[in-house]
Structure formats: structure tokens, C-alpha cells
């Protein structure tokens, strides 16, 4: 056999290759512009006459099809050189899912330029529809509708049906490319009554952003009186936008503000600011701003990041007086934080400054944390030391400055180095992790200590040994098959005693006692106190895992500390040492037997008193969309005892319809059907004070094409004062929202756990969902 023939025989045969999927251009949501002129024209009907490549006349069940455009009529003439279609009698156009019906049509098909007489139209994206005396098609994306109506209310079979709301306008301009509609000379009717004259308005044809005036907000507030707020949205670019707002408060005065947002490939952020030149209630100028920025860029020497979180207000009462302020400004401790970071390979470094603004209340004053002015941090974490070793080192030097308004500020510099070395031994059935830490700290004080010293130091080693086993077996519980685990765990830690009473408390506090901290080396968070520990923590957890999915259906856990010697290091000088050999017992349980039911609890139990010290017990029932109830009981013995309940639940239909939950389950964003009421809210009740602390209670009514919301909000602003607001909103689905008071939808999303909006477009409809 010749060499060439032999090589060809040994070459792989294409027929022997496995089949591969290839992308097909046949089903495209949007046809490319350069492809449209090449698309053929198909015509069909009962009778076709004419001349090839010149003109075709179709009588009876006439149809013309080209790309994503279909024209049907009783009679249709198509002139090939002009690409002109003229149709009469029961004319219907389907263009990429958007439909038009009327009596007469003249249209250049590819350019989609022409007019439609006495047209009815329906848009796929929003379900909106209407009627008009004439539709002028300017091109494939733009059209002008004359003497038109526009609504998203869907027609029923009743002969007397009228939409609940409708926009009637002299002219409506529709831009499908920008997905924006504008109406001129219009009026908005609700329940047959004109409610709002609209000389000019723009509205969305999808959920795409667009520039324009947003619906005004009118509110009634116990602190500010009658409020009016008018926002304007500016869609600057696909990755930048701004919202400008101006408003007036009857009891205070004029307020101006705005928000700017940006999103780039290497950085993102937002800025929000408000100004009230003169507040008649406080007799002063009021202002507040909040700015966040996160950025990361790559350089030849590593990644460099800049992060900013700046928050400031004009006075102590700002958080109390302005409930609509951005969320970061509703706190009484406002941070202004700036950090510059660098990372390359196993090393990273950071320079940070942090300054606090404390908004004081005479009834409950707070002590602000120390300011970091600045902090220098270096971290080394090698990825592969070999022999299974893990090592890390942190070096930190920080200058702490107290608020100068406080007496005797204890300003100073703290520097520390912390190194730790561990060797994890891991196996499918268990683990053993010995760890050795060394913590060296040096202080320099601006003012001498009581002993006259201006410096202090501390060096301490810590040894810990963490170990655990995992046993598994097949089990059945209440008729279900599970894999049950038994996971005992033992954690030992030892740190020798060093007297730390003269050291300040810059950033240190006692850690919470829970399942996350009971297996840690230090009882304090921060770096000013290292507890002298010689203790063993024993615990065991058992889980029931679904044999098919691996989901955790049941979790039970218990843990307790056994102390071999007293803990003499206390948070404050003169504090009592911890001498109890046995700590409180932590008990935890979580049950998620079905996706609908959930239960979780953690109890800190004192065996000596036979009482719980702290308890958190929560339950959730969510049988489907828009149906959820959450309840949490929280107890901190001698401090607080509260019940927190949140819910969203449909009620019966308005006119004797189905009871909630008996109808077919609808997808998220579609509600439970028209004519249905929902109750929604959250109540936080203090058993100790015997009063409601926070209250949010409201009702929603879904009429399919409009949604009504009314919410009463009463939030505690201090120990003795609260703020009450009445919020009301009508949402014309696919068009606009009118609000009385702040947006109740924001309040419900912020306060009600697992709340779902009744109308939320989760996916863009495909043109093939309305394909002819």
C-alpha cells in the first residue's frame, strides 16, 4: 500500500467522531440587522394572483411572513420592488410577539414604515394593550399612536368590561429600542373616574431604566407633618445613574438631595446627600451624606484596592427626625472609614483610618469607639509550607484617639505581632488540629499611667488542640430514610496568666457565648485582652441528612466547657475572676423537616439555677409564594424578653373568591390571582416592658393590573419616643406608582422577613411565547 494511502487509512474518520452540539441561528430572539434584507417573503392564501417578483394579490385567509413579522388579512397586496404590503379586512400583525389588529394597513415590511387604521394593540413585554384611531409606524422600533388608550388590565368575557385604570391620551409615542413610552394630552382614569390630568408623561415599556420624573411622594408624619417629595431619575449611562429630589415638609421646610451611583469594571460606589437650608423645628441648617466606594486594580507589583465608607450628619437628632434618610444614616454610630490595601502572592498590607460620629441622646447616651488614626496592617500567609503545615503572621500598629468631648482621653499607639503555626491531620472520619500561637503587644501612651509609666508590653503563647470524629449510619425517622451522623468534638486550649489590668481597652469586648465562639482560644474579641485559659470544651452534634439530596433535616447539638483553673484576666480592673469549673450548657436544635417548615433554637442553660440564661427560639412556616409566617422568642435573663412576629399571607378574594391557598400555585412575581387581599406586617413586643416596641402592619390588594398598599409604621426612636407614619400607595402595574408617605414597599421589604413583592418580572418574555 502506498505511504499516502496508509496515512489516509490511519487518519481518524469523521463519521467515527462522537456527535457534538452546535449553536443554531434558526431561533434567535433578535434577528441581526444585516440579516433582515436577505430574509425571504412567504405568502399564502385561498387565491393568489399577480406577477412574479413584481406584485402578488392574495384573497381569503391572506398571510405574509418575513422573519419575525407576520401579516394576516382578508385581502392583501404585496408589491415586491417597494416591499409594500397593503391589507384590508380583519388585519393582524404579529411583530416579535407584539400584536396589532385593525381594519386597514399600509406597510413597508422590512423598514416597518407605514400606518394602521382603527388599531388595537398588545405588547408582549408588559401585557399592556389599548385602542387607537391610527398607528403610524416610523421604523421597526418607533411608532406613534393617535387618540389612544393604554392599560395593563386584562379583558374578561363580560360584555360590559371596562379596565380598572386606563391612560387616555391624544398622542402616545412608543420606542421599543429604548423601551420607553411618552404620552401627551392625557388623563389617568381609575374606576371610570379621571384622577390625574397628565399633560406629558413618560412610562416604561419594560423594567429597563429610563430618565424622567418619578411619581411624587406625599406623606403624613408625626414629626414632619405633611410631606411632598418629587424625585427625578437621570439614566446617565448603562453603568451610571442619578436620582435628584426636592421636597417640602410642612413643619420643617424645604429639603434638597440626590443620589449618584456608578459601576465600572474595577470600581463601584454610590453617594447620597441631603440639605435642608433652614429647619424651623430645630432653628438650624440640617444636612447629611453617605458615600461608599469599592475599587480594585491590578498593577505590576500586585493588586491595589481603595475602599471608602463615609457617613456624616449635621446634628444628634438627624437620625430621629428624618426617617427617609439612607439606611447607613439611621444609626447612632456613624463610621467614616477609608482604607488603601495591597496584595501580592502570600502577602497583603493595608492602611486604614476610621473616625466615628456618635449621635447622643440624653435618655440613653453612648460612648463611641476609639478612632483609628491611622492603622497599618501587614499579613503573611504562605500557601504551601510542605509537611502539611499551616502558618500565618499578622503585624499591626494603630494609633487610637478618643473623642475629645470625653474626659481624660486615653490616646495611644498599640503595636502587635501575632504568629500561629498548625498541623491539621484530616481524614474522612475525623480530624486533629494542634495549633501554637504567639502574641506580642507593645503600648505607647500619650498620658502616663497611674504608675507613671508611658509604655506597657505583653507577650503570651497559646496552645490549642481541636479534634473531632464523624460517625455515620443509615436510619429511619418518621418513615423517612436518612443518614444519621454523630459528631463528637473536643477542644483544649491553654494560655498562661499575664497581668493586663493596666492595659487600655481600645477595641476589645467579651465575645458572645454561642456555638461559634465556644471552640475558640480567647474569650475576648480584639487584641487588648488575652484570657488565661486552661479549659476543655466538649460537644457533640447529630444530624439527619436526607439520603437522596443530602439536605439537613434535623440538627441537634450540645456543648459545655470544663475549666481546670480560674480565669483571672477580666475585661475591667476589679472584675471578678471566672472560677466556675463548669460553664453554662449550650443546647441547639434545628429542624427543616420539609421546605415549608423551619425551626431553630439556641439555649444557654445554667445547671446550678436550673434556668436558661439566654434563649433564642424561632420558627418559620412558608408553604408557598406570598405565604410566610416567622416567629422568634428572645430572652436575655434580667435584660430583655421579646417576641418578634412577621408575616405575609393572602386573605379571601374580594368578591367571595377562593380561600387563600386553595387555588393553583403561581410563580414568584405573579401574586395569587386577582381580587385578593394580603395581610403583611411585623410586631416586636417586649414582655418585660409590656408594650410593642416596633410595629409595621399593612394590607395589600391585588387587582391584577393595579395593587393597593396601606401600611402603618410605628418605630421606636429612643427609650421614650417613637415615630408613627401612615403609608399608602397605588401601583398601576407596568405604568407607575402613586404614594402617600414614604414608599411602603421599601418598608415591607426592610422589616418583614421573606417578604415577596406581588409583581416582579423575573424573566423577559420570549417572542416565541406569542408566536404565529
UniProtKB/TrEMBL annotation:
Protein name (database record): LPS-assembly protein LptD
Q: Which residues form the signal peptide?
A: none
Q: Name one Pfam family in it.
A: LptD
Specify the LPS-assembly protein LptD central domain's residue ranges.
Answer: 188-283
Give the organism, scientific name: Acidovorax carolinensis
List, for all copies, the residue spans of the domain called LptD C-terminal. 285-652
**Self-association state and partner proteins as the record states:** Component of the lipopolysaccharide transport and assembly complex. Interacts with LptE and LptA.
Database matches in InterPro entries:
LipoPS_assembly_LptD, LptD, LptD_2, LptD_C
Gene3D superfamilies (UniProt xref): Lipopolysaccharide (LPS) transport protein A like domain (2.60.450.10)
Q: Which family does it belong to?
A: Belongs to the LptD family.
The reply to whether Signal figures as a keyword in the UniProt entry is: yes
Q: What does this protein do?
A: Together with LptE, is involved in the assembly of lipopolysaccharide (LPS) at the surface of the outer membrane.
Subcellular location as annotated: Cell outer membrane
Amino acid at each position: 500500500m502506498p505511504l499516502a494511502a496508509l496515512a489516509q487509512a490511519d487518519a481518524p474518520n469523521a463519521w467515527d467522531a462522537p456527535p457534538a452540539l452546535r449553536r443554531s441561528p434558526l431561533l434567535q430572539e433578535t434577528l441581526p440587522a444585516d440579516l433582515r434584507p436577505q430574509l425571504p417573503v412567504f405568502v399564502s392564501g385561498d387565491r393568489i394572483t399577480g406577477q412574479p417578483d413584481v406584485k402578488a394579490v392574495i384573497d381569503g385567509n391572506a398571510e405574509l411572513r418575513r422573519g419575525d413579522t407576520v401579516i394576516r388579512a382578508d385581502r392583501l397586496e404585496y408589491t415586491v420592488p417597494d416591499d409594500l404590503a397593503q391589507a384590508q379586512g380583519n388585519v393582524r400583525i404579529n411583530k416579535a410577539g407584539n400584536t396589532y389588529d385593525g381594519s386597514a394597513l399600509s406597510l413597508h415590511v422590512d423598514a416597518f414604515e407605514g400606518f394602521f387604521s382603527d388599531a388595537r394593540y398588545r405588547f408582549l413585554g408588559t401585557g399592556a394593550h389599548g385602542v387607537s384611531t391610527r398607528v403610524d409606524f416610523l421604523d421597526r422600533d418607533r411608532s406613534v399612536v393617535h387618540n389612544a388608550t393604554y392599560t395593563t388590565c386584562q379583558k374578561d368575557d363580560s360584555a360590559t368590561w371596562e379596565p380598572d385604570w386606563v391612560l387616555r391620551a391624544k398622542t402616545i409615542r412608543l420606542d421599543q429600542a429604548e423601551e420607553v413610552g411618552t404620552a401627551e394630552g392625557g388623563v389617568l382614569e381609575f374606576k371610570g373616574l379621571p384622577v390625574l390630568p397628565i399633560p406629558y408623561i413618560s412610562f416604561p415599556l419594560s423594567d429597563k431604566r429610563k430618565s424622567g420624573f418619578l411619581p411624587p411622594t406625599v406623606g403624613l408624619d408625626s414629626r414632619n407633618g405633611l410631606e411632598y417629595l418629587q424625585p427625578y431619575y437621570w439614566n446617565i449611562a448603562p453603568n451610571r445613574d442619578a436620582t435628584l429630589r426636592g421636597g417640602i415638609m410642612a413643619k420643617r421646610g424645604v429639603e434638597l438631595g440626590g443620589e449618584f451611583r456608578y459601576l465600572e469594571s474595577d470600581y463601584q460606589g454610590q453617594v447620597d446627600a441631603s440639605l435642608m437650608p433652614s429647619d424651623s423645628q430645630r432653628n438650624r441648617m440640617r444636612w447629611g451624606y453617605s458615600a461608599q466606594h469599592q475599587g480594585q486594580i491590578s498593577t505590576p507589583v500586585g493588586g491595589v484596592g481603595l475602599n471608602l465608607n463615609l457617613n456624616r450628619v449635621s446634628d444628634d437628632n438627624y437620625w430621629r427626625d428624618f426617617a427617609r434618610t439612607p439606611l447607613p444614616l439611621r444609626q447612632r454610630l456613624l463610621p467614616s472609614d477609608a482604607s488603601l490595601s495591597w496584595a501580592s502572592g502570600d502577602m497583603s498590607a493595608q492602611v486604614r483610618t476610621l473616625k466615628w460620629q456618635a449621635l447622643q441622646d440624653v435618655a440613653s447616651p453612648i460612648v463611641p469607639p476609639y478612632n483609628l488614626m491611622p492603622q497599618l496592617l501587614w499579613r503573611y500567609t504562605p500557601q504551601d509550607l510542605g509537611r502539611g503545615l499551616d502558618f500565618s503572621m499578622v503585624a499591626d500598629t494603630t494609633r487610637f484617639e478618643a473623642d475629645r468631648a470625653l474626659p481624660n482621653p486615653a490616646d495611644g499607639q498599640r503595636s502587635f505581632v501575632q504568629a500561629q503555626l498548625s498541623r491539621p491531620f484530616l481524614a474522612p472520619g475525623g480530624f486533629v488540629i494542634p495549633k501554637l500561637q504567639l502574641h506580642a503587644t507593645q503600648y505607647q501612651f500619650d498620658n502616663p499611667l497611674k504608675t507613671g509609666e508611658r509604655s506597657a508590653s505583653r507577650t503570651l503563647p497559646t496552645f490549642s488542640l481541636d479534634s473531632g470524629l464523624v460517625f455515620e449510619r443509615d436510619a429511619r425517622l418518621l418513615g423517612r430514610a436518612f443518614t444519621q451522623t454523630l459528631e463528637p468534638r473536643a477542644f483544649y486550649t491553654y494560655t498562661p496568666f499575664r497581668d493586663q489590668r493596666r492595659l487600655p481597652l481600645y477595641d476589645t469586648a467579651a465575645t458572645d457565648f454561642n456555638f461559634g465562639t465556644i471552640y475558640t482560644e480567647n474569650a475576648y474579641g480584639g487584641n487588648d485582652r488575652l484570657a488565661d485559659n486552661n479549659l476543655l470544651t466538649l460537644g457533640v452534634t447529630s444530624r439527619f441528612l436526607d439520603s437522596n439530596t443530602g439536605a439537613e433535616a434535623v440538627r441537634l447539638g450540645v456543648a459545655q466547657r470544663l475549666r481546670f483553673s480560674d480565669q483571672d484576666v477580666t475585661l475591667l480592673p476589679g472584675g471578678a475572676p471566672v472560677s466556675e469549673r463548669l460553664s453554662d450548657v449550650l443546647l441547639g436544635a434545628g429542624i427543616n423537616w420539609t421546605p415549608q417548615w423551619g425551626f431553630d433554637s439556641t439555649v444557654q442553660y445554667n445547671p446550678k439555677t436550673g434556668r436558661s440564661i439566654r434563649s433564642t427560639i424561632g420558627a418559620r412556616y412558608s408553604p408557598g409564594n406570598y405565604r410566610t409566617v416567622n416567629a422568634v422568642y428572645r430572652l436575655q435573663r434580667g435584660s430583655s424578653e421579646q417576641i418578634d412576629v412577621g408575616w405575609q399571607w393572602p386573605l379571601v378574594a374580594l368578591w367571595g373568591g377562593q380561600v387563600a391557598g386553595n387555588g393553583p400555585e403561581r410563580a414568584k412575581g405573579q401574586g395569587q390571582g386577582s381580587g385578593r387581599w394580603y395581610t403583611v406586617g411585623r410586631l416586636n413586643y417586649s414582655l418585660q416592658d409590656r408594650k410593642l416596641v416596633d410595629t409595621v402592619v399593612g394590607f395589600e390588594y391585588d387587582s391584577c393590573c393595579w395593587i393597593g398598599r396601606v401600611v402603618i409604621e410605628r418605630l421606636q426612636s429612643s427609650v421614650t419616643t417613637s415615630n408613627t407614619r401612615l403609608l399608602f400607595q397605588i401601583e398601576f402595574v407596568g405604568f407607575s406608582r402613586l404614594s402617600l408617605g414614604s414608599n411602603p414597599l421599601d418598608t415591607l421589604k426592610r422589616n418583614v422577613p421573606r417578604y415577596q413583592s406581588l409583581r416582579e418580572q423575573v424573566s423577559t418574555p420570549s417572542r416565541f411565547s406569542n408566536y404565529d
